[in-house]
Each structure stands twice: as structure tokens, then as C-alpha cells.
Write a structure and sequence with these properties.
135 residues, alpha+beta, two-stranded antiparallel sheet
């Protein structure tokens, strides 16, 4: 078990963490310090407990916004996959022609659209998973 010292609003705190997590914990502490500094506790006269509460509320607000974004991304990914599946199941019509020249097959266009929708949905799922894991 490792221990590091983090600084929040000019005050140092010892914090234990798993070996190898020191850098990540230092980044989290720096983010918390940024939130806490926005209250300028030396000038505002708020107590350490009030500072902790306000900082926690700011972090909770950010987490709530992230959760809402993830839910939206997941829904869009599901919708895209459904549209891609529907496009793949569509019957392939006869070749499209323009001026007697062979053109792009509508079926090919549907297949390309389905593939693009699948790729977009997969990317959205990866983004949502990364956001969920904190990466």
C-alpha cells in the first residue's frame, strides 16, 4: 500500500492508495484542489467542512452531467444498431441507372450505410465505456 501527500487549498493531507495508483490519485487531488480553490476559502471565511461540502457538490454535479451524457450515448448506440440491422435486412432493389449507365446499386448503398451505422454505434459504445471507467 502506497501513501502520498495531496494538497487541497494549501493544506496537505496524507492519503493511502494501491501501489501504482499514486499518479492517478495526484491527478484527482489536483482536480479537487481546482474546485476548492474556486471558493477561495481564505477570503470567504467558509469552514473546512463547508469547503468539503461545496467541492463535493461540484464533483457530484459534474458526475451527474457525465451520467446523462453516457445514457444519451448508449441510447444513440442502440438506435444506430437497430437502424443498421434494419438496413441490412432491406431487400436489394434492381440496379440504379442514370442515362443508361450502370450506377451504384441501392443494395450496396444500404450495406455501406449499415456498416457506417454499426461503426458509429461501436464507437459510441467504446466512448461510453471509457467515460464509465473514468478513462
Amino acid at each position: 500500500m502506497a501513501e502520498i501527500s495531496v494538497e487541497i487549498c494549501g493544506r496537505r493531507y496524507p492519503v493511502a492508495c494501491e501501489d501504482g495508483q499514486e499518479g492517478h490519485l495526484a491527478q484527482l487531488a489536483a482536480k479537487l484542489d481546482k474546485y476548492a480553490q474556486s471558493f477561495d476559502p481564505q477570503r470567504s471565511g467558509i469552514s473546512e467542512a463547508q469547503l468539503l461540502l461545496m467541492t463535493a457538490l461540484m464533483v457530484a454535479d459534474e458526475l451527474s452531467e457525465t451520467d446523462a451524457t453516457m445514457a444519451k450515448l448508449k441510447k444513440e448506440a442502440v438506435d444506430l444498431k437497430a437502424r443498421a440491422a434494419a438496413a441490412e435486412k432491406s431487400p436489394t432493389p434492381a440496379p440504379a441507372t442514370k442515362g443508361g449507365q450502370p450506377g451504384l446499386f441501392d443494395g450496396d448503398l444500404q450495406a455501406m450505410t449499415a456498416e457506417l451505422l454499426n461503426q458509429a454505434a461501436d464507437r459510441m459504445e467504446r466512448l461510453a465505456a471509457a467515460a464509465e471507467s473514468g478513462a
